[in-house]
Design goal:
The protein has 7 helices and 9 strands. The chain is α+β, with helices and mostly antiparallel strands and 192 residues long. A hairpin with a 7-residue loop joins β5 and β6. The protein is globular and about 40 Å long.
Amino acid sequence: MPPNRPKIYHITHLENLPQMLDGVIWSDAQRLGRNLDCKIVGMSEIKRRRREELEVECHPGTMVGDYVPFYFCFRSVMLYLLHKGNHPDLSYREGQTPIVHLEADLYDVIDWADFRRRPWAFSKTNAGAGYTRFFSRLDILPELNWQAIAATDWRDSMAKESKQAEFLLHQEFPWTMVSIFSLKDEPKGLSC
């Protein structure tokens, strides 16, 4: 079962904060369309696939890259990859130290989006994988593997896959919905 008030987490580079403080965190598609200069911490090929190939089928005609992505866990698999800095598809090599963690309340974000008729969705696994399915109904939220999401040891491939579940908000995320932002210490081992 999900926590009473699930939190969602977005990670970004510290250098991106000044433009976010103007009021909006943009999706990758919006970032490119607006020609914004950002410090990219993700994998370029996965970002391209999310923009060009992976449709969010519960909102036909929209792609994963049209959405601002959030994890349900504070210490994500991607964060660990950034910390290690040795993945061959990752050009970012600065480690975790300049990474900022933004936290928001899931239900507050959904209320905000529903009031504005802004599409939102979530996946049970990595939203960048070709086999992922997307949902926009809260009654499916308990089906996420919350034990894996909260796990600090995710060497098991199923736990690792479930830990990568994502929440997506279409086009933009308002800075006013961020409840906490912080810099955290480096993860140890496989801790997440």
